[in-house]
Amino acid sequence: MDKKTEKKVKKSVKKGYNTAKKTAKKNGKLKQFYIAIAIILLIVIAAGIAYYFLVLKPNMDNNAGNGTVIDGEFGEAGMTVHFINVDQADCTVIELPDGKIMMIDAGDNNKSTESHIKEYLGILGIKTIDYMMLTHADSDHVGSMDFVLDNYEIKNIYMPKLKPSYKMKDKNGNIINDRYPDVPEKSTFGAINTKVYYDFYTRAEDETYVENGARKDCAITYNCGYFTILGEGYEIEVYCMDESVYNKKFSSAKEKNEISPSVLVKYQGRQVLLTGDSCGTSHDNFTKMYRKRYINKNMDFDVYKAAHHGSSTHDSNNIGFIKEIKTEYSILSCKGGEYNGIPSIDVMNNLKANGNKVYRTDECGDIKLQLSTTGVIKFTADYNKDGVFTDTELKEAV
Fold first, then answer.
1. Contacts of 146 (CB under 8 A, 6+ apart)
2. Cα 214–217–219 angle (5° rounding)?
3. 25 or 381: which leads in pLDDT
4. Other CB atoms closer than 10 Å to residue 319's CB: what's the count?
5. Tens-digit pLDDT profile for residues 252-310
6. Among 288, 334, 287, residue whose Cα is nearest residue 312
7. H helices, E strands: number in the chain
8. For residue 355, which of 321, 317, 320, 329 has the smallest C-alpha distance?
9. Is the pTM above the cut of 0.70?
């Protein structure tokens, strides 16, 4: 409505009001007139409120003050992915639609990480983990796995095809525990010589859980080739390096990182890609396997947990891969600042240049991603020690 028309309407309304008022006064019914006007105003206000909420349907969670980012009108949560803030390390917990729990990696080997994981899982009411996955043997991923195995019941473990070559010794250098013999040269297993992996491996082999009153052995699956985890309304596709890469001793960072699987979580038309410390060879392996499985179908994912904490080392998060996966949101699990060149400024810039909103655990705290039963995406940040997601503003990385 232009200003000229608006002026005419106001003039007509005012004239009509004054005429009605004079008529009511003349007939001695001024009191009834005011009552009628009040009722009309209440009806107009009520109609306006109803129109606002039922027709315009504002997104009440899309305010900067409550710290959530929502793609559409949310509704009821069906799946929740927790990116737990464990500094320069990784720990992801997924609450699946059928009530099952998945944990991918468990942060570094220190009391602070153990305490935070324990508190976090306690608030979520988690006592049993249905699927535990170790992406690779670096201490910032396997570090607190032994703690989780000691304190929770694990039904299924997915792990690298590595055996520990670490030998426990006394102060004089004598071997005091030779549980695992050296891996032969032509073995299909790889070998890694770290205590932290030894601590995980021994517990994984010994893990049991109780179901329906019976104690059962935890099932172990090695991260080789391709496999899926299927549930009610969701699918988890796991793309791993071929078994042939394991026939060696693992010592270099590149060797350890490149066996990280690419985990594609699918629910209600949404796809979340989790990649551990994948590097260029891992990315190439994933894209090759994906294209073979989905012929003539381009990748178009929603959320990407950036590989190796946002590093560019060994071609992690290279620009070709970022362009190919076509995501809208990226999560970086990292320490404050640019710790040892991680996260890479170039990687962050490339993610943003290719349409990603980037969120970092060092800036946002723990990050909770929820997918609604209709496929709407919602992010919430900042878990506090009272066990409440405080909904502080989800800060996009600069």
1. 196, 199, 200, 203
2. 130
3. 381
4. 16
5. 989 999 999 999 999 999 999 999 999 999 999 999 999 999 998 999 999 999 999 99
6. 334
7. 11, 24
8. 329
9. yes
